[in-house]
Write a structure and sequence with these properties.
single chain; alpha+beta; Butyryl-CoA Dehydrogenase, subunit A, domain 2; Butyryl-CoA Dehydrogenase, subunit A, domain 3; 3 domains; four-stranded mixed β-sheet; four-stranded antiparallel β-sheet; 12 helices
Length: about 425
């Protein structure tokens, strides 16, 4: 059993670091761009006079960073080669995201906007696996050319974790001789609607409440007649791009369906597995950053003439966090490695519980590590001179989004007790 990081991955990461130092860090410090990362960051990133949406200058800076990364061959790393990527694996993405987050806040990787110079593209896998040839051309190729951007429209105001009790309904309706669907309902927490050209919108087209089947994914243009954005909900960490909107007689043709009619939740599962393991790696890296910064501070800070690090009250909590980081890193890397050796259906059947373990524990760990870093640093740690409050406020969201930690623990329990997954046969007689 070999736990070594492949040398080719180490070489590629060294290439990424060189690119960051040569292209991205100078861009971050150009003019007053660093206002988006220093103590002014929340205010600088937020357009308070435009519903709290991201500042356009902030988003332009992110686009310039990814443009440079794309020109250097890094941004599309995880995408298939046929779309200009490098077939980047889940393991490689996990290692890169972990290490990027360990570098701290910076233009190379900023999770608040899901931004990175090595992009995460779960929609590419969705369109590649379930889209028609025309849809793949329009949304994968068009996405990389920045002509298309798709929001993920699953969550509803009255139905968060349980998508099977969906109130948004689509019924067949022919308009001007074209067969299609009329959609009515509402959605909430739909990220990126202010820049999305389309929303992958999930609606019930058959079955009963509680059924996993009978939900269909539609590619709805934004704007569309009858799609009314009510507000962008302000959050613990600003800016916000999380829309609540209503659908009143929105119509789309049959060609707007992504995948099979009534099998839309299968697409959603494809989205979450890739997203969860990579986001877990980022949370792990941010937790490690908080631990390492606390260790350095405790070695240098000398209250009462002695290094703060000599106190066991400082040492022991950081020892526990460092130990959890090491254990979690092994689980994340192993799970990502296993994912690379399975198709989508096998991941859902045999590995979904491990993905949930990685994600819910990483998100809990980073919040604990950020809180401890604030405590170790004292007043300066609580201030916005340090990034710990930002890390806490941002990552706290992931204990709710990407599947609330209670929902993920519920999935782990279902696999553990044999209600789902490979252990079902073990308890078949019960």
């Amino acid at each position: 059993m070999d736990f070594a990081i492949p040398q080719e991955l180490e070489d590629y990461y060294a290439e990424l670091v060189a690119f960051i130092e040569a292209e991205i860090e100078p861009l971050q410090h150009e003019g007053d761009n660093n206002r988006f990362f220093d103590h002014r960051r929340e205010d600088a990133r937020t357009d308070w006079h435009r519903d709290g949406l991201p500042n356009e200058e902030w988003e332009a800076l992110l686009r310039e960073a990814t443009r440079r990364a794309d020109a250097a061959g890094h941004w599309r790393f995880s995408a298939p080669k046929e779309y200009g990527g490098k077939d980047g694996s889940n393991l490689w993405m996990a290692v890169i995201r972990d290490r990027f987050a360990q570098r701290g806040l910076g233009l190379h990787n900023d999770l608040q906007n899901e931004h990175s110079i090595v992009g995460n593209f779960p929609f590419v896998a969705m369109f590649d696996q379930w889209g028609t040839q025309a849809q793949r051309q329009e949304f994968i190729t068009g996405g990389f050319e920045r002509e298309r951007r798709v929001a993920f429209g699953l969550t509803e105001p009255d139905h968060g974790s349980d998508a099977t009790h969906m109130d948004t309904v689509a019924v067949r309706e022919t308009r001007d001789g074209i067969d299609g669907w009329r959609i009515d309902g509402s959605k909430m927490w739909i990220t990126g609607m202010h820049v999305a050209t389309h929303v992958a919108l999930f609606a019930r087209t058959g079955g009963e409440d509680g059924d996993a089947k009978g939900i269909t994914c539609f590619l709805v243009p934004n704007p569309s007649e009858g799609l009314e954005i009510d507000e962008y909900v302000w959050t613990f960490n600003m800016p916000t791009d999380h829309a609540r909107f209503f659908l009143k007689g929105v119509w789309v043709p049959d060609s707007a369906i992504l995948g099979e009619e009534g099998r839309g939740l299968s697409l959603a599962q494809s989205f979450v597995h890739q997203n969860r393991i990579r986001q877990a790696a980022s949370s792990l890296g941010a937790a490690q950053y908080c631990v390492e910064e606390s260790v350095r501070y405790a070695r240098h800070r000398k209250p009462f003439g002695e290094a703060l690090a000599k106190n066991q009250a400082i040492q022991f909590p950081l020892v526990e966090l460092a130990t959890q980081c090491e254990m979690l890193r092994l689980l994340i890397y192993k799970t990502a490695w296993d994912m690379d050796r399975m198709d989508h259906k096998a991941i859902e059947r045999d590995l979904s519980d491990k993905v949930s373990m990685c994600n819910y524990w990483a998100n809990r760990l980073v919040c604990e590590a950020a809180d401890r870093a604030m405590q170790v640093h004292g007043g300066i740690g609580y201030s916005r001179e340090k990034p710990f409050e930002h890390i806490y406020r941002h990552h706290r969201r992931y204990r709710i989004t990407e599947g609330a930690e209670e929902i993920q623990m519920r999935k782990v329990a279902a696999y553990l007790f044999g209600y789902l997954g490979p252990r079902r046969e073990t308890f078949a007689d019960l």
